[in-house]
Amino acid sequence: MSEAGTTYRRPFKGLAIEAAEVRAWTRLRTDHPDAPAVAHELFIAILASGADTIEVTLSTAGTRLRITATGPAPLPLRHSHGPGWRIIAELSRQTGVTTDECGLWAQMEADR
């Protein structure tokens, strides 16, 4: 049986001031209390790599929520597991690097 889901995707400028907009945009699309913080940390990690644009994606399937932030180029290792990684890992069930190595993702349960 397939699970219905929704995907929201938005590009943000690679500017620190956009982090507040990432949190607000995430808060409007999911009621998970930790989603804005996780989206923020994923965005900041990609921003720290020097990306000029960052695409944030929120995807749901059943009770799962996956947040992904991607930039235009592969991430250096220090940005894929930097200071915010601990926050992301603690608030999520699973985390990882995208297959193209240009982004990071975190999966959480939406009905927490």
List keywords for this structure.
five-stranded antiparallel β-sheet, 112 residues, 5 strands, 33% helix, alpha+beta
Can you describe this structure?
With 112 residues, the protein is an alpha+beta fold. 33% of the residues lie in helices and 30% in strands. It has helices at 18-29, 35-48, 77-80, 85-91, and strands spanning 7-13, 53-61, 64-70, 94-97, 103-109. It has a five-stranded antiparallel β-sheet with strand order 1-2-3-5-4, with helices on one face. β4 (94-97) and β5 form a beta hairpin. α2 (35-48) packs antiparallel against α4 (85-91). It is globular, with a radius of gyration of 13 Å. The model has no long low-confidence stretch (mean pLDDT 90).
Summarize the topology:
Elements lengths: L6 E7 L4 H12 L5 H14 L4 E9 L2 E7 L6 H4 L4 H7 L2 E4 L5 E7 L3
Antiparallel strand pairs: 1-2, 2-3, 3-5, 4-5
Helix pairs in contact: 1-2, 2-4
Mean pLDDT: 90
Strand count, sense and barrel status of the largest sheet are:
5 strands, antiparallel
Write out the strand line-up for the largest beta sheet, numbering strands in chain order.
1-2-3-5-4
H-E order: EHHEEHHEE
DSSP strand content: 25-35%
Which blocks of ≥5 consecutive residues have pLDDT under 50? none
- In DSSP terms, counting alpha (H) and pi (I) runs of 4 or more, how many helices? 4
